[in-house]
Amino acid sequence: MKKIKTIIVIFIISLSFVFGACKVFASSIIGNPLQTDGYLSVGTSDTNAKVNVYSTGEQMRLGYDSDNYNSFTTDSFGNFTIAPSSGGIWKVFNDPISPYYVAGYSGNAIIGDNKWGSAILSGGHANDGAFGPNTINNNVLSVIVGGEGNKIDWSGPSASGSANFIGGGAGNIIEKNPFYSVIVGGLNNKVTSSTNDGPFADFIGGGEDNIIDSHTGSHNFIGGGKSNRIYGAGYAAIVGGLSNTAWTYSFVGGGSGNTAGGTSASYAIVGGGQNNSATADYSMVLGGLSNTASGQYSFASGRRAKAIHDGAFIWADSNDFDFSSTIANETAIRATGGISFVTAIDGSGSATKTFSVDTSGNFTIPGGLALQTTDAKPTCDVTNRGLKWYTQSGAGVKDALEICAKDAGDTYAWRTIY
Fold this sequence. Notes:
Blueprint: H1 2-18, E1 24-25, E2 40-42, E3 51-53, E4 60-65, E5 68-74, E6 80-84, E7 101-102, E8 109-111, E9 119-120, E10 135-137, E11 139-140, E12 143-144, E13 151-152, E14 161-162, E15 165-166, E16 173-174, E17 182-183, E18 190-192, E19 203-204, E20 211-213, E21 221-222, E22 229-230, E23 237-238, E24 245-246, E25 251-252, E26 259-260, E27 269-270, E28 277-278, E29 284-289, E30 292-293, E31 299-303, E32 305-307, E33 313-316, E34 323-324, E35 331-334, E36 339-345, E37 351-357, E38 363-364, E39 388-391, E40 400-406, E41 412-416
Parallel strand pairs: 2-3, 7-9, 8-10, 9-12, 10-13, 11-14, 12-15, 13-16, 15-17, 16-18, 17-19, 18-20, 19-21, 20-22, 21-23, 22-24, 23-25, 24-26, 25-27, 26-28, 27-29, 28-30, 29-31, 30-32, 31-33, 32-34, 33-35
Antiparallel strand pairs: 1-2, 4-5, 5-6, 36-37, 37-38, 39-40, 40-41
Organism: Candidatus Roizmanbacteria bacterium CG10_big_fil_rev_8_21_14_0_10_39_12
InterPro entries: Serralysin-like_metalloprot_C (IPR011049)
Protein name: Trimeric autotransporter adhesin YadA-like head domain-containing protein
């Protein structure tokens, strides 16, 4: 035994020659295997730690053999480097087939029975802060890059979630048995499912307090903004804005307080603006303020335009009054500044032929007005009062231009103008 101890002491002293002018300090108690109840210092007389290795170059090498090893180095700024040789990679083993990895500040954790292939790369915070550590629970192949208080969680019918990603930010959550879903960053954003069906391939870019509460088909998108919501059976999108809501297969471009779709309405669009709603199947509000398209296949835009019948097209000007449809498949335009239709322009783009209606209701027509009526003339009555009718006659018979009018005896009849 004394012979073995002597050999070990000689080996330790020989390290001083390997490290140049290094010194070795150890306690007097040396056993087999090598043991000490004091300090081991190489290249220094410091006893700040149980093992002290100082060098301006590579401090330590841990290897499988001379060609496959990791080099450990600390520079003059205190930066620590681990450099694998031979194209090696970082791995933290738990499952030998697909390891999981945890780094960052204290409290970050990957928990649960299913966690292989998952990683927390950085960030986190002690639990005494507003958000706390980053956590992955029962999710395989999932990643949190950084930030604090971010969570990829699980509670659902399958054994685990899979392949979800949070880039950073704070308080972001992907939960309820999720698959292939992403939150890039931002604050307090959430991908969830109130039915526990499991979010599937949902995406939130950033912003604050945005929520996708999806189920069935999923594949929803929120680009950013604040307090936007997506509900329903999937495939909805909100680009951004504030407090917008989209349902199944529906779209909101931006603005604030807009709603596209509903619990039983799909394929609706609101382009932008404020407090607009397209709440029937295939309805649309292009933009503006306080417009409603509540009929199927309806369209409303401007200010307070109300397309409340199926197929109605309603356009309202800036006056602060409701302008509503009155019948299905109606087109109605409120334009108190007049309406113009340009049918020809010159070489500079200026209008040369314009049909217009002014604010007094007068028509201006640069040219003739042609009535080419070949249908049977209707009965002249109170309904057709004021109607002009042009009759195209055959060869040898004069054409006729008539007007439906009432005489002093309240009798309606066609009167010949020509």
